[in-house]
Protein 1
Amino acid sequence: MAEEQQTMDTTPEQVETPAVEAELTNEEALRLVLRDAVHSDGIVRGLREVAKTISRGDAIFAVVANDCDEKNITKLIEALCAERKVPFVTVESKKQLGEWAGLCKIDKDGNPRKVVKCSCVAVKALPDSRALAKLRESLKA
């Protein structure tokens, strides 16, 4: 019984170690930061809430999808970010952004289902992490 407990205690450490050592890409770092923001309730979704958060100066950074139906959304968020000096990031699709922003159901296998498309999000609070450091480094460049 004691051997089984020792085995179970060391297994999670071995599983997490390779993930920490792997180099993060900018896209993976953004996905992880958005996931952390969802879990810490530090993300706002939707044009109206994002615009309010940026205008108040509460946003750390904003994310907009490239395939927005209305190009004025992108222009508005970009202008607000420029005015308040908030970093601005774009992603490929609204569906991808909706998944990363937590607007989906996760099935028992861990796959996203019923993803709701999202055109823009803003992150207002985050716990410090390696992914956030990587993302801030890429935003400065």
Protein 2
Amino acid sequence: MSASILVIDDETNIRTMIRLALAHAGYNVETASDGPEGLAKYENGAKWDLVLLDQRMPGMPGIEVQREIFRRNPHARLILITAFGTIDLALEAIQAGASDFLRKPFTAETLRLAVQSALARQTEASHTVPVGMVCREFTRTTINGFSFELESQTADDHSGDMICLFDVHRAGAPQKRVKVVLPAYVMELVKAYTDAEEVPGGERFWIAMCEESLANHLWQNAEVPADDVLRIEDLSTSLQRWLDSVMTVSDNN
């Protein structure tokens, strides 16, 4: 039996593209143009296997729609669609129950793979991620159809670099092992940027930074890094935002 999917998005062209792409893949698809219409169609969630929800909509923002969906059905599957992804948004969305994210603009193939991955996930009642957590659990999310988990981490005795190996999964594709390299000089840049000789969480902080960098790459590019290697060369704007967020949380605890 084909999965039933509800698409809630205020942009007509996006709704149409999603409906056609997923209908072509064999899914049963209905659409709604805003949050109230989407919630009216969703009811108690019994007839829906998945919701695709736009984050930015007039009137009733996606995050409010999301909270109401999980209030009605704590075991709901939901993909949050947004072009405005930030650390704070991701944390807020995870706290509200989301575990799958799709970044605009996206191709029909990325859409289908994201849907396939979301439908394959085991559902569980949503739970709150403590705001005081220094290390965000990106590894439990699905980003553009990708999910990943840490396989191992080592420190190069000669260079001082940290090397993290991640197993990256995507529905319908072979598993990839991606190496993320965090050079020692970037760690020193972090200490200078945060004006702290010791980072909160010790080694787990640096692992989380590697997780964030891989998550951001998958978010921005919807593909694994070239040659399955991602080297963190400097403090990008996104990493600076992540550091600001982490250090603020640490200072408040």
Protein 3
Amino acid sequence: MEKAVIYREIEEFKEVHLVLKNASSKQFYEYRFEMDDFPNIKIKNITNLRETGLIFENNKISGIPYVNSVHDLDIEFYHTHDEDSTEIKKVHLFVNADPKDLWKNIPSDTNDIYYKPDETSYEGKFLDKKITVVSKRGRSHAHEGKCRDDDFAVNELPGGWGIVSVADGAGSAIMAREGSRLAVVSVNSFFNSEEILNRIEQNIEIVYNSSDSSKEIQSEAGENVLKLLYKGILHVYDILEQTAAEHSFSIKDFHTTLIFALTKKFDFGYVILTFGVGDCPINLISPDFSEVMLLNQMDVGEFGGGTRFITMKEIFSDDMVSRFGITCVNDFSYLVLMTDGIYDPKFMTENKLEDIDSWKAFFNDLAGNNDDRAKVDFINDTHIDQQLLTWTDFWSRGNHDDRTLAIIY
């Protein structure tokens, strides 16, 4: 082949405007060189690549870059008809900063009033199933060194009952973190009573397990259950109101949402008693993952941008009964409670909470199909709470609230 042709093809490759796609720090990167227009040009090596954390092999750059910067790279190449001569082509690789690194992570002040850890987790038994719950401070609070406002509580109760409650303290309320803690602790404490649970159970038996009871009697029994649940919520309000008065605060300073699931396995199935105020969902997924139910009323839509809190007296109105739920199923695969720190980035809209495909995507995400490759293994579930804590550190632009997630499985 004439030297002039070799020279021309080398110079054409040198002059072509080659733009490498941008990389992102701490995220897997891959770029393959398409050489169809230069069949006689072979890339031998790329110098200055090691400092990026990437490697070059099989005509592609790949790996996980760890330093955000503009990297000057030298592509060493040769012409197939002149393999002894190595030429250099200069290109640039832009590695964008990991968005997470732009957020400060300032520990909250352990001497602050009503201090709570920046993250906490729980794993254990729940009825004849298992449960894991995590609560992690959001990036917005971490950036300012503020405490976590979310909270949760799990309790094994007398008579084979169990309860899990989750609360999201309002960011605008100065005592929100204590409000959420008091809400979950006080509602669980109220139902930690053999007398109350026995009364609930007697009425549940009439509703679901008494063939000789009339519809009127069954309806009355159901109303009796709701009345007892109502007393539990009223108890929470009274505790918050009393605490506010004792410390010269307004109850508004303790604004918090609250959801809970009070459950027991009977001979005729699992009974799940629920309550919700605010924008935190409770979802039940069928054993074969074919159906999902939203078990509580969500304060979105007409209340968008202004959620309701357990500290608002107006929620104790005529429509209060719609906030409670009585559900009975033979079995289930998952019972999930979460705050909006999980709900907003993963579901975005209320209608997706009742869309089984959205839930399949959610559990696929939990299984490791995510940018961080963080996996929560419900089979090999040793330290599953730590797996879930790691997963909750996911990045979602514009979603930096506290994240609390409870899963019974």
